[in-house]
Write a structure and sequence with these properties.
about 5% strand; single chain; two-stranded antiparallel ribbon; two-stranded antiparallel sheet; mainly alpha; about 270 residues; 8 helices
Length: about 270
């Protein structure tokens, strides 16, 4: 005679779990990772929010340095020389960010990114904080209702972010300006290039990019070019989290350096003029 095994009962609406009273039996330092990531994400959110509303110290005209937080600058309110693509929007009121044309899309690309969704859910939303740790939420509807249904727009943000990446590349070319107006290389030039490479790695390793390259292909043999690209992106995709965090720091570093030079706090180290 066999007996039917007892199903684990649901705990706090979090799905079937073992019927134990403890919230977790983990004894390791599982809080370190989510708390560290939460601190990094919150710092970037606060820093970028303050910077995009400052409306100053974002451009170094003598060397062509433009911070990515203000690129492209398409308003008549932009500093002279900072508008590499013209000023179709006219003047902005003081409370409107000069980087409005791109920053919302870049922010949307980050927020809806699979890596940041995982990090944000675990670190900020605590859903869940770690494996085998009970989450505090009694109800979870997934990404099927407002506002989390917004996360499904990631692939569309990817398309716009790819275009903005090309704009960042164009900005990098402008960053090689010498004191006499000709070709020159400064520390800022190299920092901007490193940031563009990090952003390129983050964008290219994106899951949406991988899907664009080889998604829905039934026969790889009939699409050798897309298959090769899909294979390359798949290798980059395994490092997507690394590119995501690295590019976060390079954006902050690039903006902070340009701000410091523009404000006159430091002098750009010139390598070649």
């Amino acid at each position: 005679m066999t007996t039917t095994p007892t199903r684990p009962r649901s705990v706090a609406g979090a799905g079937p779990r073992a019927a134990i009273a403890a919230k977790t039996l983990r004894t390791d330092g599982w809080r370190t990772s989510p708390l560290s990531i939460a601190a990094i994400l919150l710092f970037f959110i606060v820093y970028s929010t303050i910077r995009i509303f400052m409306a100053k110290w974002y451009f170094v005209p003598e060397h062509g340095y433009l911070t990515p937080l203000y690129s492209p600058c398409l308003s008549d309110s932009c500093q002279e020389g900072a508008s590499h693509f013209g000023t179709p929007f006219g003047e902005f009121p003081r409370w409107l960010p000069l980087g409005l044309a791109a920053f919302p899309f870049v922010a949307g690309f980050r927020v809806t990114c699979y890596y940041y969704r995982k990090s944000g859910y675990r670190s900020l939303w605590l859903s869940p904080q770690a494996c085998a740790v009970q989450e505090p939420h009694k109800k979870y509807s997934g990404e099927t209702r407002f506002p989390l249904v917004f996360m499904n727009s990631h692939r569309y943000f990817f398309y716009v972010a790819s275009l903005i990446l090309l704009i960042n590349v164009w900005d990098a070319f402008h960053a090689f300006k010498g004191d006499d107006g000709g070709f020159g290389i400064g520390l800022g030039s190299l920092i901007i290039v490193v940031n563009v490479l990090a952003l390129a790695g983050y964008t290219a390793s994106c899951h949406a990019c991988r899907h664009v390259m080889g998604g829905r292909l039934k026969h790889f043999s009939k699409h050798p070019v897309r298959y090769r690209l899909w294979t390359l992106i798949s290798k980059l995709n395994t490092r997507h989290g690394t590119f995501a965090m690295t590019s976060l720091f390079t954006v902050i570093l690039t903006d902070a350096y340009i701000m410091a030079v523009s404000a006159g706090w430091i002098t750009d180290l010139r390598i070649w003029n």
